[in-house]
Design a protein that fits this description.
With about 100 residues, this protein is an all-alpha fold. Helix content is about 80%, strand content about 0%.
């Protein structure tokens, strides 16, 4: 049964997730086999199996620490740009006033 689960997983990733296609005949047959054999005709267990496949293929969100680090870096860069803009504005002001 593990082979059927692996084959279903491969097809689901390739066809449904990768190409956005509906399940084909082979997948539907495997679905029925897995539902009856592996998941004791429990659609909730089958649904959880499919959701686990989707979850594996979905990129995880960045952690709080990664987000904070990225925001701190962006803040630092924005401050540097602001300083450069202020210096340029002061230089232009000095040039205009010295005329």
């Amino acid at each position: 049964m593990a082979e059927e689960m692996q084959r279903f997983k491969e097809l689901y990733i390739s066809l449904v997730i990768g190409q956005g296609l509906p399940m084909n005949a082979e997948m539907l047959s495997l679905f029925d086999e897995l539902l009856a054999g592996e998941f004791d005709d429990n659609p909730e267990l089958m649904s959880a199996f499919i959701q686990s496949i989707i979850d594996e293929q979905t990129p995880s969100a960045p952690s709080v620490e990664e987000t904070i680090t990225a925001l701190e870096q962006e803040n630092k860069e924005l401050k540097q740009r602001q300083e450069l803009a202020e210096e340029a504005l002061l230089a232009l002001s000095d040039m205009l006033l010295s005329r």
